[in-house]
Each structure stands twice: as structure tokens, then as C-alpha cells.
Design a protein that fits this description.
663 residues; 21% strand; alpha/beta; 3 domains; single chain; 44% helix; 20 helices; disordered N terminus; 6-stranded mixed sheet
Amino acid sequence: MNKLRTLNQFNPLTVALRLLPGRGRLLMLAIAALLTMGLLTVFSSGLNTLEERLGAQGWVMFPDETTEERITIVAIDEQSLAEVGAWPWSRTDMARLVLALNDYGVQLQLHDISYPEVRDGDDEFIAALQASRGAVIAQLPVTQSAEQVHTGLMTHALSGVSCDAGVQTSSFVASHAGFASIPKGHIAPIFASDGSVRKVHAFVCVDGQVYPTLVISALLQATNATSWNASIESGRGWFGPEQVLRLESYPGLGIPLDNDGNLRISYRDLPENFLAVSAADVMAGRVEREMLQNAWVLIGGTAFGMGDIVPTPYNGSTPGVELQARLLGSLLDTTMPYTPRGAEWLLLLMAAVFAGGLYALASARERLSAYGLPVAAIALPIVALSIHWQLLVTQEIWLGWLFPSVYALFAASLLLLLEQSRVRVERSRVFGNLNSYLPSDVAREIAYSLPSSSINAKRCDVTLLSADLRNFSAFSEARPPEESAALLHFFFVRATEIVESHGGRIQEFMGDAVLAVWDGQNQDAARKALASAQEMMDSIQRDMPQQPPSGLEPLALGIGIEQGPALVGSIGPAQRRTHTLLGETLTITLRIQEMTAELAQPILLGECVARQLIDLQPESQGSYLLDGLRTPHTLFAPANDEATQRRARQEQRNLRVVAGGRS
């Protein structure tokens, strides 16, 4: 129990409920931030994949449907393999393909293929490449494997860029030395945990030399630059890229990079935007000249057996050459997507705005808060994702959306939990306060139901006990009000304890009297009521002041008990209800209690109760016409025992002659 109490003291929700409402909400917002950072740290891999996949849906839902006419894919597809032969093709066949492209007037050839082995026909193939208007072939630095590979010769390094700016490796697969004169670019993709390729290295450092990616090499080759010089500078402004790669031969062109020197692939273009022709059709002259003349062509494998297949937002099996086409198109259009320098601060700002809105919503009226917070938990992540999509589609800015979305979900949930707990605590407090003034069943009904202007009462059988503190009015007149209040408080508290210990409940405190109720009109209820009356006499009578002020009669208890039907419920207008107990049984009980002073009996029983206690042999006190009633009632006193006789003798001196009489 102590451990549970200690843990409860450190429960954030318990702590927040003890604070002022505003501070409690701020505590929940702070806890939401900690939970968000913890979740994103522990499950970073899976959540990053989720962020990337949903984030890329902005491209899918709002794609660019313009056909890309500058770039054509020459696909080594199933048709080509069927007509020319299985892959890899001979160097002679590759030379035929290059010469056919030259004849079509292709401006630049990009081979998404490397040629590491020395083979027959290399001279013919190399001569065809050299005779083209421009050609770039692939080399592959190995960046995501521990295996050490040194095949071929890496050439055409980029000057002006430090190796510290990108990924470094000493493993590579490149074309053999015979292709040294042919410009090259690397094709080292970055595979995500789900197999997708979302970024590529703009350059890779191999043995101290920096080698650009294939599409950047294509830009450099297209300018016929004698030297490939570049520089990297930091981006500017919150919405600028983290780094910018500038090519000396392309003044004014800035290629956005992230801090690791990577390019992000744009998936804004539909796959259908890229024109593709079969390599077999090119070699056979079956392609319209307009499709290839002055075009940049990408030569790569698209057949499933070639293994160059990756998933994209559009398709689960996309040929890798299409990714190169996307990168090249983005570079030519200067629409390369990037993550801005201030992305983290912008996401924090978005989360702060969400926090402010949630705080205001939690501070609103109870109904607005109860319905608004669950809606906000769903709507705010959608807002964050929509902002990300809008920036991506219109500005090619990859902002991200996961942090503010997860934070909004946590913050809204915790604030809702806090507000609901606060409401529950307040309702429990209200119920507790009501229960201190009303019976528990009545308090519960009032607390959990709407007020009504109609009579809400029901008839039931009850056993009633009315206990009056006699001579209290005279005592209060002679003593200070504080002393009178203390005495009355003692009487009410002790009487309540006794009644509840015997299964009854206090119906009402009436001036200096107590009205108690037991459900039912039976022997068990009668016995419990009598036991309560006798314990009151023994306990309360004993502890009350025994020496009254001069000229005053001593304080004494008078208790009347009866049972029968009664009407129990609430009456009055909706804005001012009162709980009441009505009926002849109540009137009889009150009148019996009043007769205790006249008959010098501290406890008197009505006829119905006496009938239930016949085995206790109650003593008849005669039949009386009670005040306000038209039918005489026989009253009974409990069988005299020593304590009762002693109390009766003590009160004999207090007897007075009253009107009326025994019939």
C-alpha cells in the first residue's frame, strides 16, 4: 500500500491534477514533448519509413503530368533480350546500340551500366562512344557493404570538393582501364530499410578522390568542360538548403544537398512522363527519329532478370534507370527537392502552434474541450501532413511532418485525459459534498441526472427514527453560539455514526433533531432502529453536559420510532429543488418523539414497530390522540432494563403537566 501511495505521488496525472489548471496543462504538453522525442528515438527506423512513405504521397496525389521530351530511356527490356540475346551483351552489340543512337542524332548518352571486364569488341565499343556527341558511363563505389572490392579504374574525379563533404569508401566496381577516356559518373544509390531509394550521393570519395554521380557528370560533360571543378557552400535562410553544390561550368546553378552531401529524388513526375523505347527497336531502326534526335538518352536494364528493380511510391518494381531519369530531369529543371536548413525549428514552431491551440481548446468550456480535443488529435496530424505536401508540391521543399503530428496526438490525448480526470475529480468532489448533505442515493441521483420541474418521488416502506435534543433552545440562549454549535455538531456526528453502524442513513438534520431511515417495514429494520436508539442513549446522553447553566433544565434525548409507508423524492422548481420525505408515518414518528418528554420515556415506539418487536415485550404507555392527527395511537416503551429505569428516574424531576391525557 505504501509503495502504491509513493508511485501515485509521482504519477504525472496526479501531479497535474494537484496543480492549477493552467500549470497542469503545461505539464501535460511538456510530457507530450518528452514522449514524442522518446518514441522517435526508440522507433526511428520504422517511423522514418512511415514519414517518407506518407510524405511522398503528395507527389502521387498531385503529380506533374507533363511529358518529359528532353530525356528518353533506351530500355534493355525483355524484347531486347529476346532479339539480341541474354544479358550481358557482347561489346559488339553494345557498339551497334551506340552507333544506332549516334545515327539518330542523340545529344548525350548516359549508360547506367559499367563495363569492368575486358572483352572482345572493346575497341569497337570504345570507338563508338568516342564518336558520339557525348557519352557518360557508370562506375559503382561500394558504400553500403563491408566487402572490399577493387575492380576496374575510377576516373573523372571532381576537383574543388573535399572528401570530408561526403561518404568515403575504398571499394568500387568500375569499367576497366580501356574506358579511361570515357567520362564517368557513379551510380551508388542509398537503399532505405524498406528497399526504396530516396536519395543518392551527389559525390563519393574513393581513395582520396571525389567522384560525382552520373547525372552531375552528364551536366559537366554536356558543357564540354576541360576540367570538372565544383564547390560547396552553406545554404542561407530557414528555407534554404543545408548545402549548395555549384559547378564552375554552370554559373548560377545551385544543386541543393543535405548535410551528408546527398540528393533527394523527386517523384513528382508520373512514370508515364518518361518516354521509353526498346534497345532492340533502336538497333533495328524501328524508332521514330523525333524521339531521339537531340535528346539525352539513358541506357539501362528494365528486364526483371537484370536485377535493377526498386520500389517507388508509384510501383513496387521500378527499373533503376527511371530514378536516373528523375534525377536528371530535376537537375535540368532546377527543381531538386531538399530539406531546408531550418526544418527542425520549423517543425518545432509548428508543434508549438499546435500546443497553443490545444492549450486554448483544453481551457475552453467542458463540452467544447471534450469534443474538440479528440477531433484535434486526428485533425492536427492531417494539417501537418498537408503543410508538408503543399510545400513539397509547390516549392519542392521536403519539410517533414512526423514530429508535430506525433506531438499533437500525444498532447491532445494527454490533455483530454487530464480534463476528463479533472471533470471526474470535480464530479466526485461535488458528489462527496452532496453526500454530506443528502443521503448517498439521493446525492447520486442529483449528481448524475438533469434537474426537472416535475415531482420525482416514489412510495416505499420505511422505518423512521426521530431523535431530538431536548432543552437545546434554552441552552443556546444562555450559552455562546460557538458552544451551542460545538454541542450540536457532536450530537449530529455521533448520531450519524451510530445510525450508519446499524445499517441506517441520516435523512435530515432538523434544527436540533435527527431523522434517520431504514429501508423496509420489517422486524430487522425495527430491531436496528431500536438498537440505534439505545446506543444513542448510552453514548450521547452520557457524554453531553450534565451540569446545565443555572436555571436551565438538563439536556436530554427523546427518541421516537415508527414504520410504515412514505413518499420519498424531490419536489420544487428545476432551479431550486428540495429532497423530502412525506407521509403519515413521518408525522406519527415526529409526534411520538414529542411525547417522550410528556411520558418521561426517553424512547417511545409506535404500534407498527412494537408489533415487530413483540418478542422483546414492549410496554404499552396508553393510547393518545397525537397533535394534528384524528386517530388515537397506542405508544410503547422498550422493556425496562436497569439502564432504562435509571434514566427514567433521572428524568422524573423534569416531568410537567401537559394538556391531553390517556384515553
